[in-house]
Amino acid sequence: MEENQDFYKTIDTATEEVLFKDKNSKFFGYAYPVTTEEQIKDLLEDIKKQHYNARHWCYAWQIGAETVQYRANDDGEPNNSAGMPIYGQIQSFEVTNVLIIVVRYFGGVKLGVPGLINAYRTTAQMALENASIVERTIDCTYKVNFEYKDIHHVMRIIKEKNLHIISQKMEITCEIIFSIRKSEAPACEQAFTPFYEITLKKLS
């Protein structure tokens, strides 16, 4: 991701199954939006139950926008012939928070490493071409604490800066948690600066 870029691309919903065939081998491809490794584990288990007769369940995933984690798994295929070609398509489409699984049913004819690379890459490409790719903003989250008497200052800033309220607690002392697009965060912090009795804390 480019420096200072405050958005990322991901897929909106899970894709329909795609199928690629080569020399009687069948490759079924799936793409899912994910944000945690727990989700990834559950989806892999679901696919293995669905395709319990398959020979290989290869996959690659990437999560995170600024700090990225990824993994590629060949699941018994020759080294780097499955997981990395799948991951290469995630990179090619410049998406994150995504899991791609390619399930292989062996057709009796060996494809060789170049054939496998092509099959896994093509199936992953088909799955992503089938996906609805969307842009999401990278947001910062803040907590603002203030006395009730200062509520008009806070609400004015929230309205002017179009802040997204996540939660609020309005008592004698008040607390609002809100988010704002990363590129707009410095101006937001500046808006609260003149009010010494209002405390602003960045959460993420």
UniProtKB/TrEMBL annotation:
Pfam families with a match to the protein in the record: Impact_N
Superkingdom: Bacteria
Residues in Impact N-terminal domain copies: 23-128
Family annotation (InterPro entries): Impact (IPR023582), Impact_N (IPR001498), Impact_N_sf (IPR036956), Ribosomal_Su5_D2-typ_SF (IPR020568)
TM region(s), chain numbering: none
Family: Belongs to the IMPACT family.
Name of the protein in question: Impact N-terminal domain-containing protein
